[in-house]
Amino acid sequence: MGIQFNSEAIENYLAPISYPMLIAGPCSAESEEQILQTARELSCIPQVRIFRAGIWKPRTRPGGFEGKGEEALKWMQKAGKESGLLTAIEVARPQHVELALKYDIDILWIGARSTVNPFVVQEIAESLRGADIPVFVKNPVNPDLKLWIGAFERIYQSGIKKLAGIHRGFSFFEQSKYRNAPMWEIPIELKRQIPNLPLISDPSHICGNTKLLQEISQRALDLDMNGLMLETHFNPARALTDRDQQIKPEELRKIIKNLVIRSRKGDQAFECKLESFRSEIDKIDTELLDILARRMDIVRDIADYKKEKGITILQIKRWQNIINDRLNSGMNMGLEKDFLMKLLNLVHKESIQEQNRIMNKDEKKHKKKQKD
Ligand code: PEP
Ligand code: MN
């Protein structure tokens, strides 16, 4: 299962585009004037190289603006020629791919609502056979990394090697300050599994408003994303979709100006110094693991004793006392309450599982820590 990506092929095509790659443009193509005027204004921002717009809009509920279709592709083609920007649109059907190629669109992306469906992704992949065009794949709406990777594999297998991921956050039920929770650990894990795959962040769909765009854009770059996609409209107040999150080109210019662009790699002196910090961390991690293993040995002794005396695993008073005491000490040591709580829960859960294994599975011989 799974396929091997040729890492050079999937990243080299981006080399001519400077870092960070900036994609801007409206959520939807609404009129010729809107497309041409927005592209014109964006072409005056030197860092912006790619102009985006949605031609067919997947709406959560029916009745809203669903895009202008083929007519809007003509505007995109004209905007690309006039502004010198590369053009990018979303495709969700084989006919969309066919039309995008017909109107010389430079980059395609697969939307979050399509990535969730392997049938749809496979159909798009088949329609891409023989084409030489970069395809960006947005994360699926649900936090399922395998599904996201599966979409890359399907597209790659159809012969498209110019790939990138777009991280646009994940839907969830509860209210939060985000429209789509970023869950940064998911794109980080994607990077770990497919190291050379370029990743672009889409702060507009993560935030759902304009207030957090600067902060999320900075966070994305600090987490080694290759670029940003920011929805930009010449008149956001009149936007037909995603009105609350679109900004004017002049606001985009400000966001770009305020971004701190850090190097992705340091020089030799930096690497040397970093190495010495890292060896400190390595030593501490070894101690940490040793302490955890010793703690688990005692947990096993406790399990034997509880089993012998017929006592339940969970002792809620003890657990409550541990939380109070460790939160207090940990916070005094400068550790965050949230982090302490997660750590304590993790250790306690493992302790309960280990006691359960011993007390209910008649596991007489359990592994003691290897002593030398
Ligand atoms: C969009 O980019 O306008 C869009 C519909 O995004 P997503 O697929 O991330 O919801
Ligand atoms: Mn949008």
What does this structure look like?
It is a single chain. With 372 residues, the chain is α/β, with parallel strands linked by helices. Helices cover 50% and strands 10% of the residues. An eight-stranded parallel β-barrel has the order 1-2-3-4-5-6-7-8, surrounded by five helices. α4 (94-102) runs parallel beside α6. It is elongated, with a radius of gyration of 26 Å. It starts with 6 loop residues before the first helix and ends in a 12-residue tail after the last helix. The protein binds phosphoenolpyruvate (PEP) and manganese (II) ion (MN). Residues 27, 54, 111-113, 138, 168, 205 line the site of phosphoenolpyruvate.
- Counting DSSP E segments of at least 2 residues, the number of strands comes to 8
The hetero compounds bound to this protein are: phosphoenolpyruvate, manganese (II) ion
List the helices and strands in order: HEHEHEHEHHEHEHEHHEHHHH
Intertermini distance: 41 Å
Tell me the β content. Answer: 5-15%
Envelope shape: elongated
What's the SSE blueprint?
Elements: H1 7-12, E1 21-25, H2 32-42, E2 48-52, H3 70-83, E3 86-90, H4 94-102, E4 107-110, H5 112-115, H6 118-128, E5 135-138, H7 145-157, E6 163-167, H8 185-193, E7 199-201, H9 203-207, H10 213-222, E8 227-231, H11 249-258, H12 268-309, H13 316-332, H14 337-360
Parallel strand pairs: 1-2, 1-8, 2-3, 3-4, 4-5, 5-6, 6-7, 7-8
Helix pairs in contact: 2-3, 4-6, 6-7, 12-14, 13-14
In short:
With 372 residues, the chain is of the alpha/beta class. 50% of the residues lie in helices and 10% in strands.
